[in-house]
Amino acid sequence: MNYANIIASQINVRVRQVEHTIELLEQGATVPFIARYRKEMTGNLNEVQIAAIRDMLLKLKELDKRREAILQSIGEQGKLTPQLQQQIADATTLTELEDLYLPYKPKRKTRASMAVEKGLQPLADALMKQYQCDVEQLAQPYIDEAKGVKDTDEALAGARDIIAEHVSEDIGARNKVRNIFRRTAMLSSKVVKAKEEEAGKFQSWFDWKENAMRAPSHRILALFRGESEGLLRVKIVPDEEAPAVEALERQFVRGNYESSQQVSAAVRDGYKRLLAPSIETEYYNLLKERADKEAIKVFAENLRQLLLASPLGQKRTLAIDPGFRTGCKVVCLDAQGQLLHNETIYPFTSVREERAAVAKLEALAEAFKIEAIAIGNGTAGRETEEVVKRCHFKNKIIAVMVSENGASVYSASDVARQEFPDYDVTVRGAVSIGRRLMDPLSELVKIDPKSIGVGQYQHDVDQTLLHDSLEDVVVSCVNSVGVELNTASRELLSYVSGIGPALATNIVDYRNSHGAFHNRHELLQVQRLGAKAFEQCAGFLRVRESDNPLDRSAVHPERYALVEKMAKGVGASVEELMKDKALRSKIDINQFVSDDCGLPTLQDIMKELDKPGLDPRAKFEVFEFDKNVTRIEDLKEGMVLPGIVTNITAFGAFVDVGVHQDGLVHISQLANRRVNDPNEVVHLHQHVQVKVMEVDLRRHRISLTMKS
Q1: What is the pLDDT of residues 21-72, one digit of tens each?
Q2: Superfamily of domain covering 3-104
Q3: Contact 89, 39 (CB under 8 A)
Q4: How far apart, in Å, are the Cα atoms of 677 and each of 303, 653, 671, 683?
Q5: I want to staple 428 with a disulfide (CB 3.0 to 4.6 A). Which of 126, 251, 377, 411 is the partner?
Q6: All structural domains of the chain with their residue ranges
């Protein structure tokens, strides 16, 4: 199979681009490396296109593996004809392959196979010819009580079972029924009897029906979850079965003889008992796969935005994990996020304790020269924010509410225990909150992406696909930002192109034993980090204190000689070239074009010389909630409030307005115009103005609008 031709046609790029990308992938190159440093080979394909080529290549290889297994199985049965072999070779989808294999697939005992064992195959073949005859007389010779056929009725019933299975395994019949399902299948659900009360959260779908192929992903997943919990019964069947039966009868029934009537009865049975359930299962899986992909796409986009959230940067930070009864855990961190001090304050137990808490926060801010305060946004978060606002700090200190999603997962993890073996989970959680403010990406990579809480039905979707998709997002984000080699955690390093967990551990061990890396090339001294791994990772790692200024940039070491040649051409050092725009303007990059280094790479180099190691993330902006609104009971219809987008789904966006319960801006309320994708209008952590439409105190639901 020519993989490159198939993939190129499906993603609408040139065959040569795909061929070169496949070549690089099979040499062990990563998606970020190919996208950034091999633009000439791929024709400037982006990460999304390269990942699509990688995934399609894997699927095509799996298809070929299945093809070989099917050919071997049929061959071992002695039933592989040249015509069948060609059909299998020409099949382009797994469905086609499985349809071709179905009649030869070893299966458990069926009514048809038992009928064949009773010697009724010749009778079924005779009926299929549909000659004018007396079917009772035709069946008479097959009566054999020793084989379990005591009369002609049993003989004819067995023959019909054989015909029914033949109908259900016929490729043409299966495709006819598939097409009818595609056009007319309805997705319906009903509540399981006597479970109405238990199924309250699925009340909207107690008696639901809609076109299956038009159903949105979030509703499909909701219905399937209700079914998996034993609360809903879900069906995917055509509104009427008559068209499917009629189509099959046109294919298999000829004439109006007694034998034709037997075939007709077998066709109806084959459809109802075998074919319809089989295609329903197929469409169930198809809808599930489509819904999974949509939900994972939403989750992945949310995760990307969360990981690329604006970092405050290296600031001495006081972080608070709020709590009412158990108190607020307070930690002080240096500018690199190292823990300096921790203790607990109890501002909500009494007026005296509140005053003591204020005094303590003021003292800690002074003692540790605090520049920023991070407050967890969970229980008691807004109340803790009010306590902080009552503090009188000597210097200006910004206070920011920080999402706690996943902090508890981190604090109980092996990673947290390794970082802080002598501290309990509350201290670790507070440290995580503070570090998230300083650099969200560096801290969030320590947590399983599924635990960050920005997804939709993440526990219901294909977990392998979810893991792979989210892994791609984390890798993409880490490499697009770049990583400081001398301060990065083991977890952050593991996502750098070409490194992985084992080499990340070796890098940290080397750093601990030998001190800070002096330059990128010193990486080659790390155990098991060879030339290939160096090629893949070097460009994404920064060494700020290196004596080679290019080590602070995204310029790959393989291009250092080229940059030195540029600098020499204008009579300057590389350092001078990077500092002086006038010197760079004298360079004609067209003079440096070669077979392996074209204009795209040269343009990237010039951008890096202009702003070496530029962080692509947006500048940090402080956000504040309305000080008069702290509880859901404070909300009134018509209120206009500042909010921050916390989650984006296919049906809208959730916005935190500071009342411990996010409100929903339905997709229809995101903008004055029609919106198909919420990401067209909002992004995660965006600061927005919303108006309260409705507050349901009983169900703790808040409806918001962003329409003007």
Answers
A1: 999 999 999 999 999 999 999 999 999 999 999 999 999 999 999 999 999 9
A2: RuvA domain 2-like (1.10.10.650)
A3: no
A4: 16, 10, 11, 11
A5: 411
A6: 3-104, 142-302, 317-438, 632-705
